[in-house]
């Protein structure tokens, strides 16, 4: 899932990417990448025991970002 926040008058051009991926041992990861559009971003990986837990975390982060203007 890709989210963007663009506010040209204030020179804000940001992206936030969320991806759920299976691990090797039955666990699940939520990979987050964020930064300025057109530049490499920072990456963070959080691990969860179930896919449902990873999806819940992704939804929570998506709602936080929506409050900050990401679409």
From TrEMBL:
Domain (WGR) ranges: 1-71
Keyword Methyltransferase applies: no
Family matches, as Pfam families: WGR
Gene3D superfamilies, per the entry: WGR domain
CDD domains per UniProt: WGR_MMR_like
UniProt keyword annotation of Methyltransferase present: no
Keyword tags: DNA-binding
An annotated Gene Ontology molecular function: DNA binding
Family annotation (SUPFAM superfamilies): WGR domain-like (SSF142921)
Protein name: Putative DNA-binding WGR domain protein
Source species of the chain: Rhodovulum bhavnagarense
């Amino acid at each position: 899932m890709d989210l963007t926040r663009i506010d040209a008058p204030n020179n804000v051009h940001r992206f936030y990417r969320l991806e759920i991926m299976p691990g090797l041992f039955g666990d699940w990861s939520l990979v987050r990448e964020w930064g300025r559009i057109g530049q490499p971003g920072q990456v963070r990986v959080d691990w969860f025991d179930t896919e449902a837990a990873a999806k819940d975390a992704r939804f929570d982060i998506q709602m936080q970002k929506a409050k900050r203007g990401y679409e």
